[in-house]
C-alpha cells in the first residue's frame, strides 16, 4: 500500500505473478460472473402454459445434433472472441498497472526529495545556530579581555568596567568674549571646580549606553581621546552577545572601521562576515547577518570612525571618511529596523549620518573614578584605598583622571610604584606621551604627518606659555592661529599651514580641543600648566624669574611646583620665592626672617616649603633645611589651627624621617598646645609611611593623648592602612566608649577599615550592647569602612526595626559597601517600612543619588504615586527618579492623570521639570505657592517642605522662572519677619534653602533684613556652607557683621558665627584693619575666621595683606 495524492493506492506485486496466471484467473472470474448472471435470469423468467404435442424421435435427434453443432460452433466462436477480449483486457490492465506504478514512483520520489530537503534545511539551521552560538561565545571571550597600553597581560573587562554615561550631544555654541571671560579667568581651583560642576550638570541628563541604544536605535557616540568609547562599545557587544540587554537583540556585529577601510572591501557586512569566517569559523555569515538586521534582531557596532582619517593624505582621508559614511548610510536605509552604533572622536566627526542621533560620552565623575580604582585592584582593598585617598587630596590629578585612559595610566603607575610620582611633572609627562604617541601606536594606528612628536610638544609648549602668561584658560581661534603661525617658521613649515596643524592636533590627539565655536583650550587646565612649566624650563633664567614674579597669584602656583621639580637646581627659584637674591648663596643673618617680606598668611614661606614636596634638587647647602626648620616653628606657633595644620601637611610631605620623628614626639609633648598637636596628628596621615604608622600605633595608648588627639591619630592610621594597629585601636575604642566620648567614630572607622571580619564583628557586638542609641548610630556609621561581606547582610536585616533616626546611618553604610548593586534590595526594605524615613531623609536621598540603579525605576514610580505613603518619602522618591531617564515619559503621564492626587502631580512635575519639560511649569508654580502659603504646624509638614521647596525652586530655575520663584520666597520671608520678632528657625531654614537655589545673586535688601534677626537665624547659613552664604548674603553687610563679631555683648559662639559669615562674603579692603586686630586675640576660632576672611579679600582684590596693615597689589597676569 502506498500513498498517492492523499489516497491509498493498492499496488499488486507483479514481480511474484506471471502474466498467464493473471489471465486465467481473470477468465475464470469473468465466466463465473457471466454464468451466474444467466442463471439468475433463467430462474427469474416468467413461466407460460404449453400444450403437450408429440414430437418424432428422429426430429428430436436431428434437432439435438443441430443444436450440438451450433453449440460447438458457437462455443468455438465464443472461445475465440473470449480469447481476443482477454488479451485486450490483459494489455489494458498491464498498461494501467504501469501507469499506477509510475505515478506512485513519482510521488515517492517527490516525497523523498521533500524529506531530504527538509532534513538538509534542519541540518543547515542547526549548523547556523551552532555557528552563531560559537561566534557569540568566542566574540564574548575576546571582548572580555582588555589590554591597555604596554601592559603585559590583558585585563578582565567585566571585572574592571565602570558604567560610562552618555547624553544627547549639544553642538558647540557661539560664545562672545563677554561670555567666555568668566570661564577663562579665575584661580585654578575655581576653574577646576567649575569644570567639576559642569560635569555634574551634564550627568543630570545622562543615560546609560544601553538606554541610548533602546531609545534612539542608532547613534554616533562622540568623545575625547581616551574617553572610553571603544571600551563602551566592546562592553555593549559583550552584553548583547550574552543576551543581557534585551531578549531578542542578541547578535552583535562588531567592526573596527579602520580594518574595514584597510581591507578594500566595499560592503561592511561582507567584511564582517569574512572576519567571522577567519576569526571565529563562522562560514557564510553574511546572509544570516542580513536576515537578522532586516528583522531588527542584530546590532551593528562600528568602532572608530575618526580612525579612517589616519595614515593618508588629506584628500585620501576625506575619501575614506566619505566612503565609510556612505556605506553606513546605505546599511541604515537598507535595514530600517536594525540597531546601529558608531563611535568617533569629537574632533574627527564630520557629520554625514543624517538618520543618527549624536550622543556625548561623559567623563568619569568621582564615584566612577573610585569604582574604577577599586575594580582595578580587585582583592587588594588596601592599595585601592591608598590610591583613592591620593586622588581625593589632589584636585588636579583627580581632574585628569576623569578621562578613563589617563585614570588607567595613573593606576598602572601606582600599581608599579605603589605611589604617585613625587614630581607630578613625571606623571603629566607620561600622560602627554600616551595621548601624543602611544595610544595610537598600541591600537595599531599610524598617522602620517609632517610633525614629529618632538615638534608637536614644542608647539604645545609655545601655546601653553603664551596663553598662561595672559591668564587665559580658553582662547579665541584667531589668536591661537596667530601663535601657531608665528611658531611654524622656526621648524621650517610655512605659516599658511597653521589651520591644518591645529586641526591635526585637535582631531588626532585631543590635547587642544574646541570649547565653544571660535574658542579653544587644552584638554585640561593641568596640561596647560604643565606645558607652561616645560616652556619656562627651556627658556631659562629670565622665564623662571617671570614665574617667580607671579608667585602670589594662584594662577601660577602649579607652574611653580612643576618648575621646581624639572629644573637642575631649584635654589634660584626657592630664593626668589623667599624674596631673596636668586644669585646669592649667603645664608640669612641671625634673627632675620627667612622670607624677607612675607605677608600675614606666610605665603612665601609655605610656597617654598610646598616646592620641596616635589623632591627637587637644591644645591645651596643650607636652603632646604632652613625652609623646613622655619616651617616646623610655624606649625608649633601658628596663630590659628588651620594655619598650623596646613603647615604641618606641607612639612610632612617635604620632610624626611628626622622631621617625622620630631613631629611624632610633639604629639605626646603636653607642653605644646592641643591645637598644634592635633594638627600634627592629622597631617601625618596625609604623607606618612609604615614607619610613621608604627610610631603612631605605639603612642595610641598613651595618657598624653586626649580624646581629640586619639581620634586624629586613628584617622591617620586608617589613612595609612596600618592593620597592625588593630589591637591598639580596639583597646582605645573600648576606653573611649566607657567614657562616653564623642571621639568614638574615628576609632570605630579605623577598626572597621583595618580589622577585617573580626573588626566588623567587634563593632556589631558594641552596637548590640551600646548604652545609648546615639552611640549605636555612631558605630553603625563607622561600618561603611568595613570590607566584610557579612556586614551587608547584617545591616539590611536591621532596616525593618530601626528607628527613624538610625535608618539614615544604615542606608549610608550599606550603600557605601554595596554601591549601586545593593540599592534595589535596600529600597525594597525601606519601602516595606511603615511611616517616614525620619529626619535624615535628605541623607538617604543623597546616598541613593551616589549609587543610582536603573532597576529601581518601577519601584520608585509605584512609591511616588501611592497616596497612602508618607509624604516626605514620596518627595524623596521623586528626587531619586532624576537619575532614571527611561522612566520620565511614564512620570509625565502621571502628572496629567485625572485620578492622581495633588502630591503625585507636584512630585511628577518636579521630576520632569528639572530637565526642562515646559509642561511642568504651572504645576510647579502651583506647588510653590501652596507650600509657602500654608501654616506650618507639625514637624512632619516642615520635613516635607524641607524636601519639596528647594527641589521645586530648582526646577523653576531650570524652566526660566527663577526670578518669579525668588520674588515669591522673599515675599514669604519678609512677611515672617514682620509677623514675629524671632521667626521659626525651621520654617526659615526651609525657605532659605529654597531661596539659595534661585542662584540670582546676593540680595542686598534681604541681607539687611537678615541682620535684624542675627544671630537667631545664623545657624542655618553656617550649616549650609560658604557657597550658599555667598549666594544669599550681600558683601555690603560684612562691616556690620564684623562689628557684631567684635561685640562683647554676644556669646563666643555668636561672635564665631558672625565672623565665619564675614569670612564667606567679605570683599572690601576697608575691613582689613579690624580683621588684623582680631588675629591677635586669644581665641583660636576668631583668629581662624579672621585669617580666612583676609585670604578671601586678598584673592578677590588681587592684593597681599601684611601684618603691619600694608596692602600691595599682586603682579598682573598679562605681560607688559
Characteristic key phrases:
Rossmann fold; NACHT_NTPase; transmembrane; 15 strands; transmembrane helix; mainly alpha; single chain; NACHT domain-containing protein; 63% helix; six-stranded mixed sheet; 1120 residues
**Backbone CA Rg:** 45 Å
Architecture of the domain at 144-173 and 207-361, CATH level 2?
Answer: 3-Layer(aba) Sandwich
CATH topology of the domain at 144-173 and 207-361: Rossmann fold
Helix/strand-derived category reads mainly alpha
- Strand percentage: 5-15%
Placed side by side, the strands forming the largest sheet appear as 5-10-6-9-8-7
What's this, in brief?
The chain is mainly α and 1120 residues long. Among the domains are: 2-45 and 56-130, no CATH class; 144-173 and 207-361, 3-Layer(aba) Sandwich (Rossmann fold), CATH 3.40.50.300; 375-539, no CATH class; 1018-1113, no CATH class. The chain contains 53 helices and 15 strands.
Topology overview:
Blueprint: E1 2-4, E2 7-9, H1 19-44, H2 57-143, E3 145-146, E4 155-156, H3 157-160, E5 166-168, H4 177-184, H5 188-204, H6 209-216, E6 218-223, H7 229-241, E7 251-256, H8 257-263, H9 268-280, H10 285-294, E8 298-303, H11 314-334, E9 339-345, E10 357-361, H12 366-377, H13 381-392, H14 395-400, H15 404-417, H16 424-442, H17 453-469, E11 475-476, H18 477-487, H19 498-509, E12 512-516, E13 519-522, H20 525-539, H21 541-549, H22 557-566, H23 571-577, H24 603-612, H25 623-637, H26 641-654, H27 657-667, H28 674-687, H29 690-699, H30 707-719, H31 726-738, H32 744-754, H33 756-768, H34 773-782, H35 789-797, H36 806-818, H37 823-831, H38 841-850, H39 857-864, H40 871-880, H41 888-896, H42 902-913, H43 921-933, H44 939-958, H45 962-979, H46 985-996, H47 1004-1012, H48 1018-1024, H49 1026-1032, H50 1038-1046, H51 1052-1065, H52 1072-1078, H53 1084-1101, E14 1103-1105, E15 1111-1113
Parallel strand pairs: 6-9, 6-10, 7-8, 8-9
Antiparallel strand pairs: 1-2, 3-4, 5-10, 11-13, 12-13, 14-15
Helix pairs in contact: 1-2, 2-7, 9-10, 12-13, 12-15, 15-16, 17-18, 17-20, 18-19, 20-21, 20-22, 22-24, 24-25, 24-26, 25-26, 26-28, 27-28, 28-30, 30-32, 31-32, 32-33, 32-34, 33-34, 34-36, 35-36, 36-38, 38-40, 39-40, 40-42, 40-44, 41-42, 42-43, 42-44, 43-44, 43-45, 44-45, 44-46, 45-46, 48-51, 50-51, ...
Pfam family, one: NACHT
Protein name: NACHT domain-containing protein
Transmembrane segments: 57-80
Amino acid at each position: 500500500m502506498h500513498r498517492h495524492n492523499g489516497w491509498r493506492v493498492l499496488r499488486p506485486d507483479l514481480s511474484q505473478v506471471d502474466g498467464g496466471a493473471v489471465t486465467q484467473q481473470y477468465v475464470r472470474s469473468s465466466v463465473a460472473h457471466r454464468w451466474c448472471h444467466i442463471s439468475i435470469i433463467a430462474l427469474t423468467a416468467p413461466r407460460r402454459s404449453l400444450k403437450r404435442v408429440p414430437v418424432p424421435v428422429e426430429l428430436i435427434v436431428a434437432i439435438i445434433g443441430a443444436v450440438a453443432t451450433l453449440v460447438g460452433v458457437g462455443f468455438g466462436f465464443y472461445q475465440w472472441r473470449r480469447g481476443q477480449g482477454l488479451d485486450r483486457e490483459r494489455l489494458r490492465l498491464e498498461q494501467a498497472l504501469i501507469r499506477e506504478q509510475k505515478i506512485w514512483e513519482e510521488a515517492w520520489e517527490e516525497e523523498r526529495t521533500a524529506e531530504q530537503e527538509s532534513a538538509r534545511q534542519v541540518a543547515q539551521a542547526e549548523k547556523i545556530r551552532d555557528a552563531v552560538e560559537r561566534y557569540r561565545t568566542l566574540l564574548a571571550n575576546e571582548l572580555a579581555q582588555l589590554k591597555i597600553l604596554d601592559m603585559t597581560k590583558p585585563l578582565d573587562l567585566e571585572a574592571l568596567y565602570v558604567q560610562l554615561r552618555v547624553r544627547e550631544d549639544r553642538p558647540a555654541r557661539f560664545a562672545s568674549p563677554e561670555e567666555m571671560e568668566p570661564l577663562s579667568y579665575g584661580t585654578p581651583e575655581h576653574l577646576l571646580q567649575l569644570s567639576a560642576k559642569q560635569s555634574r550638570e551634564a550627568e543630570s541628563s545622562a543615560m546609560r549606553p544601553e538606554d541610548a541604544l533602546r531609545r534612539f536605535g542608532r547613534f554616533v557616540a562622540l568623545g575625547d581621546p581616551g574617553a572610553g568609547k571603544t571600551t563602551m562599545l566592546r562592553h555593549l557587544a559583550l552584553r548583547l552577545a550574552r543576551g543581557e540587554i534585551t531578549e531578542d537583540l542578541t547578535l552583535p556585529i562588531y567592526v573596527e572601521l579602520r580594518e574595514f577601510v584597510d581591507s578594500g572591501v566595499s560592503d561592511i557586512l561582507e567584511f564582517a562576515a569574512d572576519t567571522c569566517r577567519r576569526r571565529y569559523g563562522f562560514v557564510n555569515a553574511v546572509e544570516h547577518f542580513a536576515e537578522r538586521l532586516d528583522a531588527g534582531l542584530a546590532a551593528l557596532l562600528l568602532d572608530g570612525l575618526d580612525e579612517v582619517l589616519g595614515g593618508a593624505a588629506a584628500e585620501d582621508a576625506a575619501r575614506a571618511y566619505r566612503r565609510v559614511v556612505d556605506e553606513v548610510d546605505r546599511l541604515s536605509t537598507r535595514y530600517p529596523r536594525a540597531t546601529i552604533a558608531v563611535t568617533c572622536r569629537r574632533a574627527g566627526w564630520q557629520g554625514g549620518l543624517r538618520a543618527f542621533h549624536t550622543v556625548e560620552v561623559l567623563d568619569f565623575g568621582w564615584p566612577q573614578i573610585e569604582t574604577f580604582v577599586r575594580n582595578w585592584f580587585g582583592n587588594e582593598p588596601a592599595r585601592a584605598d591608598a590610591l583613592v585617598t591620593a586622588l581625593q587630596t589632589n584636585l588636579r590629578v583627580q581632574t585628569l583622571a576623569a578621562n578613563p585612559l589617563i585614570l588607567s595610566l595613573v593606576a598602572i603607575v601606582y600599581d608599579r610604584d605603589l605611589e604617585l610620582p613625587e614630581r607630578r611633572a613625571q606623571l603629566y609627562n607620561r600622560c602627554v606621551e600616551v595621548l601624543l604617541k602611544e595610544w595610537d601606536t598600541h591600537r595599531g594606528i599610524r598617522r602620517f604627518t609632517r610633525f614629529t612628536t618632538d615638534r608637536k610638544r614644542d608647539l604645545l609648549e609655545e601655546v601653553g606659555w603664551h596663553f598662561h602668561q595672559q591668564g587665559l584658560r580658553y582662547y579665541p581661534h584667531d589668536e591661537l592661529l596667530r601663535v601657531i603661525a608665528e611658531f611654524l617658521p622656526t621648524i621650517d613649515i610655512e605659516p599658511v599651514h597653521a589651520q591644518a596643524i591645529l586641526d591635526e592636533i585637535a582631531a588626532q590627539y585631543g590635547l587642544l580641543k574646541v570649547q565653544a565655536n571660535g574658542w579653544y583650550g587644552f584638554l585640561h587646565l593641568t596640561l596647560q600648566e604643565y606645558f607652561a612649566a616645560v616652556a619656562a624650563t627651556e627658556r631659562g633664567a629670565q622665564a623662571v624669574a617671570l614665574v617667580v614674579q607671579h608667585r602670589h597669584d594662584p594662577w601660577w602656583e602649579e607652574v611653580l611646583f612643576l618648575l621646581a621639580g624639572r629644573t637642575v637646581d631649584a635654589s634660584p627659584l626657592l630664593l626668589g620665592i623667599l624674596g631673596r637674591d636668586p644669585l646669592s648663596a649667603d645664608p640669612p643673618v641671625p634673627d632675620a626672617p627667612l622670607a624677607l617680606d612675607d605677608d600675614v598668611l606666610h605665603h612665601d614661606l609655605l610656597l617654598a616649603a610646598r616646592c620641596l614636596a616635589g623632591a627637587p634638587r637644591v644645591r645651596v647647602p643650607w636652603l632646604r633645611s632652613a625652609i623646613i626648620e622655619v616651617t616646623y616653628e610655624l606649625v608649633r606657633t601658628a596663630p590659628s589651627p588651620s594655619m598650623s595644620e596646613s603647615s604641618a601637611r606641607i612639612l610632612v610631605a617635604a620632610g624626611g624621617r628626622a622631621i617625622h620623628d620630631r613631629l611624632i614626639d610633639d604629639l605626646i609633648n603636653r607642653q605644646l598646645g592641643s591645637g598644634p598637636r592635633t594638627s600634627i596628628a592629622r597631617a601625618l596621615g596625609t604623607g606618612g609611611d609604615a614607619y610613621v604608622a608604627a610610631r603612631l600605633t605605639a603612642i595610641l595608648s598613651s595618657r598624653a593623648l586626649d580624646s581629640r588627639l586619639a581620634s586624629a591619630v586613628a584617622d591617620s592610621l586608617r589613612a595609612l592602612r596600618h592593620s597592625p594597629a588593630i589591637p591598639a585601636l580596639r583597646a582605645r575604642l573600648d576606653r573611649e566608649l566607657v567614657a562616653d566620648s564623642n571621639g568614638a567614630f574615628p576609632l570605630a572607622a579605623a577598626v572597621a577599615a583595618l580589622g577585617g571580619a573580626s573588626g566588623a564583628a567587634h563593632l556589631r557586638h558594641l552596637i548590640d550592647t551600646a548604652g545609648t542609641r546615639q552611640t549605636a548610630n555612631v558605630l553603625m556609621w563607622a561600618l561603611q569602612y568595613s570590607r566584610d561581606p557579612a556586614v551587608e547582610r547584617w545591616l539590611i536585616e536591621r532596616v525593618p526595626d530601626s528607628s527613624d533616626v538610625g535608618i539614615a546611618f544604615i542606608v549610608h553604610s550599606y550603600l557605601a559597601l554595596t554601591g549601586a548593586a545593593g540599592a534595589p534590595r535596600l529600597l525594597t526594605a525601606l519601602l516595606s517600612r511603615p511611616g517616614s524615613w525620619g529626619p535624615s531623609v535628605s541623607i538617604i536621598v543623597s546616598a541613593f543619588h551616589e549609587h543610582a540603579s536603573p532597576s529601581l525605576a518601577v519601584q520608585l514610580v509605584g512609591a511616588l504615586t501611592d497616596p497612602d505613603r508618607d509624604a516626605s518619602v514620596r518627595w524623596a522618591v521623586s528626587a531619586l527618579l532624576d537619575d532614571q531617564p527611561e522612566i520620565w515619559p511614564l512620570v509625565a503621564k502621571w502628572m496629567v492623570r485625572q485620578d492622581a492626587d495633588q502630591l503625585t502631580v507636584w512630585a511628577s512635575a518636579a521630576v520632569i521639570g528639572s530637565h526642562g519639560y515646559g509642561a511642568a511649569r504651572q504645576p510647579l508654580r502651583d506647588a510653590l505657592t501652596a507650600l509657602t502659603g500654608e501654616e506650618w504646624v507639625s514637624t512632619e509638614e516642615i520635613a516635607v517642605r524641607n524636601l519639596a521647596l528647594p527641589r521645586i525652586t530648582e526646577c523653576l530655575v531650570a524652566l526660566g522662572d527663577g526670578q518669579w520663584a525668588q520674588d515669591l520666597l522673599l515675599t514669604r520671608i519678609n512677611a515672617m519677619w514682620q509677623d514675629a520678632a524671632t521667626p521659626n528657625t525651621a520654617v526659615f531654614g526651609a525657605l532659605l534653602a529654597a531661596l539659595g537655589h534661585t542662584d540670582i545673586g546676593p540680595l542686598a535688601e534681604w541681607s539687611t533684613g537678615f541682620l535684624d534677626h542675627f544671630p537667631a537665624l545664623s545657624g542655618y547659613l553656617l550649616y549650609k556652607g560658604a557657597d550658599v552664604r555667598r549666594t544669599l548674603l550681600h558683601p555690603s553687610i560684612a562691616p556690620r557683621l564684623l562689628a557684631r563679631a567684635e561685640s562683647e555683648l554676644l556669646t563666643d559662639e555668636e561672635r564665631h558665627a558672625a565672623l565665619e559669615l564675614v569670612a564667606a562674603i567679605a570683599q572690601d579692603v576697608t575691613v582689613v584693619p579690624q580683621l588684623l586686630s582680631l588675629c591677635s586675640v586669644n581665641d583660636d576660632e576668631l583668629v581662624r575666621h579672621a585669617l580666612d576672611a583676609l585670604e578671601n579679600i586678598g584673592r578677590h582684590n588681587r592684593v597681599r595683606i601684611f601684618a603691619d596693615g600694608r596692602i600691595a597689589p599682586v603682579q598682573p597676569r598679562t605681560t607688559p
